[in-house]
Amino acid sequence: MDINWSELPFGYFKTDYNVRCYYRNDKWGELEVSSSEHIDIHMAATGLHYGQEAFEGLKGYRGVDGKVRLFRWEENAKRMQLSAQGIMMAEVPKELFEKALRTVAKLNNKYIPPYGTGSTLYFRPLLFGSGAEVGVKPAKEYMFMVFVTPVGPYFKEGFKPVSIEVVRDFDRAAPLGTGHIKVGGNYAASMRAGHRAHANGFSSVLFLDAKEKKYIDEAGPANFFGIKDNTYITPKSKSILHSITNMSLEQIARDLGLTVERRPVPFEELETFEEAGACGTAAIISPIGKIYDRINDVTIEYGKEAGPISTKLYETLRGIQEGRVEDKHGWTTVLEGI
Ligand SMILES: *Cc1c(COP(=O)(O)O)cnc(C)c1O
After folding, report:
1. Does pTM surpass 0.90?
2. Which residue, 138, 140, 225, 258, could crosslink 88 as a Cys pair with Cβ 3.0–4.6 Å?
3. Do 206 and 83 belong together in one domain?
């Protein structure tokens, strides 16, 4: 097998196996291994018609010591349970979630990118209503699966700031809706805004709170943070997905002696930040260089290079994931025997 690890895109790359488990008659069955990329779904499955579907995203990192580490996978397991509760699906037990990750990693060992390439093994756990219903109600059967795909470094040209666009004519999620859980419906709702932003040359959108359009909400598929006066500030909102990366950056910020504030962030405050960024598993941090507000034709600029604090936060978290920086909080799990 000849893979150019450093040139991999952030996309789908076929691996050998995936793992699957079915919930039927009120219980989960045995974890099964499959070498097929396809799944056989009932045409009336609630996952297809009524959006009963949730997913997760996490990575396996080959460390400087050759070991493969998962990062805070228990948080992903917990979040998938929250998502399941939110749209009335069967919850995946933590033990099953863990077994699926370990099994699929081991089976696809040869697709785990080597240390130093910037590439990682991306895990995509998926849960959906597989049982047939025509009326709107929760399915009685569910499918849980995990596939993996090696993904390339997020920043091929280095850790460089991106430009994003504020949107006021689209919302991603309602205050009492499903914005706080990782369900596909939120992504469907954000696609038109995201597509337009890309067409206009922006890498992502910045959503405002759906009710008043006064506060910063989600930065596309990532959480927003700003930095000023040695303080890490991130929005508090009922419609934001709790990013595990953001939680970790908050802790690292505290460890570095910054103050951390999670509170509503008014739009007007954007121009007072010294640094701004979007955070999530894919990139850890996408430093934000520019925010464009089309309606008011205003551009807020943070500079052409990533700020010193964002850079330090990024380097520290990446260092922990790759086994170069001490894991003081016990965030990583070494996958033995890989
Ligand atoms: C997955 C996701 C994130 C990032 O969460 P991480 O746990 O850091 O990967 C942020 N926002 C949204 C809307 C997401 O779906």
Report:
1. yes
2. 138
3. no
316-320: long-range pairs with CB below 8 Å, 24+: 316/252, 316/256, 317/245, 317/248, 317/249, 317/252, 317/284, 317/285, 318/284, 320/71
| Domain boundaries, position 287 | 162-321
Active site residue 182: yes
Q: Which of 223, 314, 317 to mutate to test the pocket of ligand 1 (most atoms within 8 A of CB)?
A: 223
For ligand 1, say whether the CB of 57 is within 6 Å of any of its atoms.
yes
At 279-311, the pLDDT tens digits run 999 999 999 999 999 888 999 999 999 999 999
In the set 182, 211, 290, 312, the catalytic residue is: 182
Query: Which domain CATH number covers 38?
Result: 3.30.470.10
Residues of the chain with pLDDT under 70: 156-157
**147 and 225 both lie in a single domain:** no
Q: What is the pLDDT of residue 14?
A: 96
Question: Would 167 be classed as within a structural domain?
Answer: yes
Do the domain assignments include residue 336?
Answer: no
Among protein residues, the one with the nearest Cα to ligand 1's atom 12 is: 221
Q: Dihedral, CA atoms, 83, 87, 90, 96, nearest 10 degrees?
A: -10
Both 174 and 317 in one domain: the answer is yes
Kindly state the tokens that stand for 93: 């037990």
Task: Please count the structural domains in the chain.
Answer: 2
